[in-house]
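Run log // design_07
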């Protein structure tokens, strides 16, 4: 590699500890740094004012003011052994790292982030020190993400971790490597990639089965310095939540009932009227996850592609999908509760029943919807539809899934 115009050499002169110190020890204690190419540095013939040998040198793989981000910082010593290297960014953050077994080099565990200045401090085994500086080029595009659920929230047993990105993610495996999920009870789960309902890149982490109540979940997304393929990340992300009580809502479209279970015990059974079958007004079947309790909202049919069929203020609204399917109070449909499906796709119930259900449920509770009076199964990205695919198919959506994760086909039994 050629030498950068911004390369610099620093010689550190160490004053003698005593007048009896040997010339050899004086030379070993002086450590100098040159920000040069990866090919190394040729020592100079300069001597210290106390007559010591020429100083030992180190090289830093990143140099100048426009160094490439997304690479670990590597400091290499020409002779002797490194004792400690400290790399600090312009915001005071520190890159951790480790000295190699032979003591000749140090490599950071994290990659250098774009648009960031770094200072390097090195100390050798004889006490000599040196400093250096470099800066990385600013990113052409910055990628950001939105995290669900929110930090310190309490959620239901079906709630996945969900990350939606501002810009496309094409380096999915590289991004996924930096997403660490920790659970208090070792819950098995997997990331799965999809295109969000909004059209943006999205990755969710779903447990193999519903969460156990009381499980504590944390996500550490150490993405600063990672290139997503659609932009650089310039910060880390983190969230944590607790799984609340075990609740399950079952909706039977054909028998027009909604039943709420808590810890396996039925606590509510109410008559409902769901979407009118035979067309776009029919409800979806499958497992939906309660996305949010939105209270009183204005529902307009044109927002879900149903023309000007309705424009209502609706109470106790519980969102189940991005496409506009809710469970909510629908007193105007009282004549059909428990007997017929005559709504525009939502699961409607009386004000009294809707109040009771709304007060009891929590975001993340599963709504298991069954019946023939449906227009199809909830799509993977229509809310949190991942519970409608098998565990095998879900794991296959991980960008890091290895061949070892795939169960080999059973060979045919040879004829006897």
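design_07 sequence
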């Amino acid at each position: 590699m050629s030498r950068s115009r911004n390369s610099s050499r620093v010689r550190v002169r160490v004053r003698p500890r005593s007048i009896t110190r040997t010339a050899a020890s004086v030379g070993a204690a002086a450590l100098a740094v040159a920000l040069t190419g990866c090919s190394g540095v040729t020592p100079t013939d300069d001597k210290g004012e106390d007559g010591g040998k020429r100083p030992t040198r180190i090289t830093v793989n990143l140099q100048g003011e426009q160094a490439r981000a997304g690479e670990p910082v590597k400091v290499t010593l020409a002779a002797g052994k490194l004792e400690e290297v400290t790399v600090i960014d312009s915001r005071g953050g520190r890159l951790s790292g480790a000295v190699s077994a032979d003591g000749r080099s140090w490599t950071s565990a994290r990659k250098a982030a774009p648009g960031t200045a770094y200072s390097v401090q090195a100390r050798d085994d004889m006490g000599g020190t040196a400093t250096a500086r470099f800066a990385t080029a600013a990113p052409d595009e910055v990628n950001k993400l939105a995290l669900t659920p929110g930090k310190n929230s309490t959620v239901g047993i079906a709630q996945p971790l969900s990350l939606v990105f501002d810009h496309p993610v094409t380096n999915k495996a590289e991004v996924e490597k930096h997403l660490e999920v920790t659970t208090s009870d070792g819950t098995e789960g997997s990331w799965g990639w999809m295109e969000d309902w909004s059209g943006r890149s999205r990755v969710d982490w779903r447990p193999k089965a519903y969460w156990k109540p009381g499980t504590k979940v944390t996500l550490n997304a150490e993405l600063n310095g990672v290139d997503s393929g659609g932009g650089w990340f310039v910060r880390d992300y983190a969230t944590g939540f607790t799984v609340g009580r075990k609740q399950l809502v079952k909706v039977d479209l054909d028998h027009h009932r909604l039943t709420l279970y808590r810890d396996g015990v039925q606590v509510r059974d109410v008559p409902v009227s769901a979407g009118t079958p035979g067309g776009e007004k029919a409800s979806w079947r499958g497992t939906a996850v309660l996305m949010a309790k939105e209270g009183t909202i204005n529902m307009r049919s044109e927002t879900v592609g149903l023309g000007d069929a309705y424009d209502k203020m609706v109470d106790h609204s519980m969102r189940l999908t991005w496409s506009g399917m809710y469970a909510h109070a629908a007193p105007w449909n009282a004549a059909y509760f428990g007997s017929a499906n005559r709504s525009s796709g939502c699961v409607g119930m009386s004000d009294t029943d809707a109040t009771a259900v709304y007060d009891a449920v929590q975001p993340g509770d599963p709504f298991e919807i069954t019946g023939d009076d449906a227009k199809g199964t909830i799509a993977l990205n229509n809310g949190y539809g991942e519970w409608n695919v098998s565990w095998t198919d879900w794991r296959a959506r991980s960008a890091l899934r290895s061949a070892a994760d795939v169960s080999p086909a059973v060979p045919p039994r040879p004829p006897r």
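The chain has three domains: 9-135, 145-243, 247-395.
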